[in-house]
Every structure is written in C-alpha cells, then in structure tokens.
Design brief:
The protein is α+β, with helices and mostly antiparallel strands. It has one domain (2-275). Helices cover 23% and strands 42% of the residues. The protein has 3 helices and 13 strands. The protein has helices at 2-39, 59-68, 150-167, and strands spanning 79-88, 97-107, 111-118, 124-129, 132-137, 141-147, 178-184, 187-194, 197-205, 211-220, 229-243, 246-256, 267-275. The chain is globular, with a radius of gyration of 21 Å. The protein starts with a helix and ends in a 6-residue tail after the last strand.
Length: 281
C-alpha cells in the first residue's frame, strides 16, 4: 500500500513538473513573439532630427529635445535596454532590496517587454509587458501571473509612456497622439494617446535641458486598500550618456507615491547598454 501511494505521489509530482515546464516554455514563446512584434515597429527609413521640429513647443520641452537629440540623428523610436541594479518586493519601512538584471524592449506607444532575473537561493525570473505580468521562483513555480484586463493595461501604459520620455525621446516628438504643454519655467507635460488610453507625464529639466525628474499620475493598486486609482509615481534621472545621437539617463530611480512622505524607490536601475536597432537586425 505504501509503495502504491509513493508511486502515485511521484506520478503526480512528475505531472506537475511537466505542466510547469510547459507553462514556462509557453511564456518564453510569448516573450519572443511580443519582442519581435515590438521590434518590427522600428521605423525602416526614419526622418532625421531638425531643431525646427520642436521650435514651436513650450520652452522647457524645446530645451529637452535639443539636449536629448543631436541634429541629424535618425529618429529611431524603439530601444533595447540592458540594466542591472536593485529591485524591492518589500515596503518603504523594510524595502529588502535584491540585486537584479533585466533586458527590455521599449516601443512606445505600442508596448514593452521587461525580462527580469533576481539571483539568489530562491531566484526570481519572469517578465512584465503591456499584456501580462508573469514571475516565478526556481524557474518553474509561478508567484505572480496577471494581465489581460483594463487595470493592467492602463497601469502598464503609464509605465512605458513614462520611460519613453527619457529613454526613447524620438517616440515622444510632437505629432498625432502626442501633445506638449508648459507646466512652469522648467517643467513640460506630454500627453500620449493610443488605442483608447491616455497618459500625461511631467518632465522637469535643468538649465541645459537634462530631464532630471519624471513624474505622473499612474493607475495603480499599490496602496493599503489595494484599490486601483491614480496616484503619484516617478523619480530622479542622472548619468546622461550619448547613444547613437540620443542623450539618455543611465541611472533611474522610480517608485510609487513620488513627491509624498510615502515614496520610496522600489526600482533602482543602472543601464549597462542601449541599442536603437534597425528593423530586421
């Protein structure tokens, strides 16, 4: 009897591992398909930046673009980003930062994929995108699996629009679905509208046009009530470097409740490489 139970348990365990393995392969395929879809949105024959394109914008927005994009730069809007840093799954009082490494494709307003790895005794891996959030421990066991609803889509849209402002500035040049307005002498607000979603992002620049702070109201349930609502999000930007004619920050901190006493940066990233690749490369 005991051997029969043991055999049954082994069969059930083996079946569970096979299902978890199949789920992981399915997720990895979804990552590849979405990554390829977003990469294909890169302009095949992009225009080149001319400061005249932004001459009519509010002064802080014009200052930002003339800092961020060198004249004559091909206006590539899709970036692949490698990063490392710290990620917190804790609270402001006990952040419990863990080292992370991640790869991302950013293709606003179409979407993004962020592939994360947190090493350790119980490693965490997975991905976040405009369509899903999927993370697992030990490479197999799901610990977060959500997406496919309006709350997730709206929250994700806020994230990748906010990141596009400083990592892919060509994607937020004025045009259809992109409007800029002045907030004050050093802050401009861009509003991106796409597929029924709209997100406003405030960008504060220094005297030379460096975007030193990004902030916006993000749709989120990161609050004690766990209810989705608009709440402050953002953080500081620093360590600007030139990549293919773009000047972008290589150090980014971000967190919920930015500008309030409840803020803490759960995301502290240091970019190690950025590529604006041509379609098909």
């Amino acid at each position: 009897m005991g051997k029969t139970v043991a055999y049954v348990m082994l069969i059930l365990l083996g079946g569970a591992l096979l299902l978890l393995g199949a789920l992981r392969l399915w997720d990895e395929r979804a990552n590849r398909v979405e990554w390829a879809r977003l990469a294909a949105t890169q302009p095949a024959d992009p225009a080149r930046f001319d400061p005249a394109m932004v001459a009519d914008l509010p002064e802080p927005a014009r200052r930002f673009f003339t800092f961020a994009i060198a004249p004559g730069t091909p206006l590539l809007t899709v970036a692949e980003i490698e990063m490392e840093g710290e990620f917190s799954l804790g609270t402001r009082e006990n952040p419990n930062y863990m080292p992370m490494k991640a790869r991302q494709i950013l293709a606003a307003p179409s979407g993004f994929v962020w592939k994360l790895r947190i090493p350790g005794l119980v490693p965490v891996t997975g991905s976040d995108s405009g369509r899903w959030t999927r993370f697992r421990i030990l490479g197999l066991i799901p610990v977060a699996r959500m997406g496919g609803d309006s709350n997730h889509g709206r929250a994700a849209f806020g994230r990748y629009v906010g990141e596009a402002v400083f990592w892919t500035p060509a994607a937020v040049l004025p045009g259809p679905g992109v409007e800029w307005e002045a907030v004050d002498a050093d802050t401009a607000r861009v509003t991106i509208t796409h597929n029924g979603l709209s997100q406003a992002v405030d960008l504060t620049v220094d005297a030379e046009g460096r975007p030193v702070v990004v902030s916006f109201l993000r749709w989120s349930d990161a609050n004690p009530e766990k209810q989705h609502r608009l709440q402050p999000f953002g953080g500081p930007l620093s360590d600007f470097r030139e990549v293919q004619g773009f000047r972008i920050p290589f150090t980014v901190d971000a967190g919920n409740h930015f500008g309030t006493d409840d803020y803490f940066p759960f995301f502290r990233a240091r970019v190690t490489e950025v590529r604006f690749t041509a379609p098909g490369s």
